[in-house]
Amino acid sequence: MILITRRRLAAFLAALALCLLAAGLLLDTAREGPDLRVWLVIISLYASIVALSQVLLRRAGHRLELMRATAEAIGRGELGTRVPVDSHDEMASFGRALNEAAEAFERQILALRREGESSDAVITNLKQGVALLSGDLVIRRANGRFWSIVGLDRLPGNVRLAAARQPVLEEVVSAAVRSGRTVTREVSIYVGERAEYELSATPIRTGERADAILLTLEDLRPEREMANLRREFVANVSHELKTPLTSIRGYAETLLQGGLEDEAHRGTFVETIRVQAERLEALVNDLLTLAELERPDTRLDVKDWDLGALVREAAVPFEEIAARRGLSLVVDTETSPSTRLDRRTIEIALSNLLDNAIKYTERGMVLIRTGRSGDQARVEVTDTGRGIAPEHAGRVFERFYRVDRGRSREAGGTGLGLSIVKHAIQVHGGAVGLTSAPGSGSTFWFEIPVEGPSTDGAVS
Question: Which of 99, 334, 349, 409 has the greatest count of CB atoms below 10 A from its CB?
């Protein structure tokens, strides 16, 4: 494309003037004398060309100015700015090319912004504290978890790592910079109280030296609490298994060593072995049930059921047990919502609640009641037993937790019943709870969504 400039236009007009002057002189020579009309035509033609050139130059200058202003606006970040194109000449083609380049640039910038926003969302929601430092240990970016760990509000602008007032951070980062590779250590950070974290510092290199350092802080408490829970669980299971196994082995050895001839006591020995074997079987079954409910891929057979009818059926086997203990078992299903649930899992929860209530109630009654609270179906099991002190109420749904260990073992409990109830309700997206006071009995309750679990993986 040839762009018209003022300098080029001046040269063109000068050349044109010389040409017209030469033409006029040639015509005068041919006519043997000057002709005024010829010179008027030449001057008029020259003036018209000059005027037209000025118009074209102003128009071209205006269009070039629009293009320049558009380019500057895009450079300032005004990505939607475009050159108006209303013709089909070479300069219009240049404008269209500029617009196409601007659209491609806008698409790339928007894609980068979306990618950056996604990265920010991921970093913001990480459980780990994350910070990106420059080579001189200035915090360029950090997520909220990082500021929370170091006990500071998010600081505006770029601040040095020293502002976190945790010397161990600078120590590990400096070690990573010196070594040129990731350094990971378990460190203690003091913000009110001591907390343990796994600290990793990774140099990011684009040349010979580290231009940035990625710092991550991961809380070690959940991992250590889980390890403690595993150790406690293994210890509890071992203890619970040891008691019946010891009893079975002891009485079996007694029978083998002459007890079979002891007609007065051998029946008692065999009965004790049977009772302990049943206790062992109950513990194993409860462990298997709990393991199944805790699996992340637990599948539920969710269908519509009449909750009242289900509760009445679940209570039938316990009527005789309650009667033998001198208790009355009352079932109130007057308010009985139709609920989407996995029948087998809810029956397990109901059986454990009823068994627990009857087992620990010495006189009076056990009441099981259904109801509805908003979009939740509710079941309550109320007893007239001893009640539970507040310091125990928050832990009764833990595995193997017993308020009175001696009394629980005497009653034949495995210590897993209420934990099974909690997990059976949690897989339905519900909640469990307890209302109790010493000497006033207890009410164990659970609520599940009437419409069923939000994601149930149901087999329909």
Answer: 349
SS3 339: strand
Any domain includes 117: no
Q: Are residues 335 and 457 in the same domain?
A: yes
Q: Determine the average pLDDT of the residues in 338-349.
A: 93
Buried b (16+ CB within 10 A) or exposed e, 69-99: ebeeebeeeebebbbebeeeeebeebbeebb
Tell which residue, 432, 435, 408, 436, has the closest CA to residue 293. 432
C-alpha to C-alpha distance for 381 and 51, rounded to whole angstroms: 102
Q: What CA–CA distance (Å, rounded) separates 139 from 150?
A: 13
Distance (Å, whole) CA 133 – CA 140:
5
Whole-structure pTM value: 0.56
Answer whether residue 42 is part of any domain.
yes
Q: Which residues pair with 377 in a beta bridge?
A: 372, 448
Considering the domain architecture, whether residues 182 and 197 belong to the same structural domain is answered as yes
pLDDT single digits (tens) 18-74: 666 666 655 555 555 555 665 566 666 666 666 666 666 666 667 777 777 777 777
Do 216 and 130 touch, CB atoms closer than 8 A? yes
Q: Are residues 288 and 336 in the same domain?
A: no
Q: Give the residue among 399, 370, 396, 392 at the shortest CA–CA distance from 382.
A: 370
Residue 317 lies in domain:
297-460
Residue 459 pLDDT? 38
Residue 457: pLDDT over 50: no
Overall number of domains in the chain: 4
Q: Which of 199, 219, 239 is the last residue of a domain?
A: 219
Question: What do you get for the CA distance between the two ends of the chain, in Å?
Answer: 71
Q: Which residues contact 291 (CB under 8 A, 6 or more apart)?
A: none
Q: What length does the chain have?
A: 460
The residue that leads in pLDDT, 105 or 307, is: 307
Phi-psi region for residue 455, left (φ > 0), alpha (ψ -120 to 50) or beta? beta
- The pLDDT-based confidence of 314 (bands split at 50, 70, 90) is very high
401: its two tokens: 């937790």
**Does the pLDDT value for residue 10 go beyond 70?**
no
Tell me the torsion sign for CA atoms 26, 32, 33, 38: negative
3-state secondary structure of 81: coil
- In three-state secondary structure terms, 277 is helix
For the chain, the C-alpha Rg in angstroms (whole number) is 44
Q: How confident is the model at residue 251 (pLDDT cuts 50, 70, 90)?
A: confident
322 and 283 co-located in one domain: no
Are residue 13 and residue 59 in the same domain, yes or no?
yes
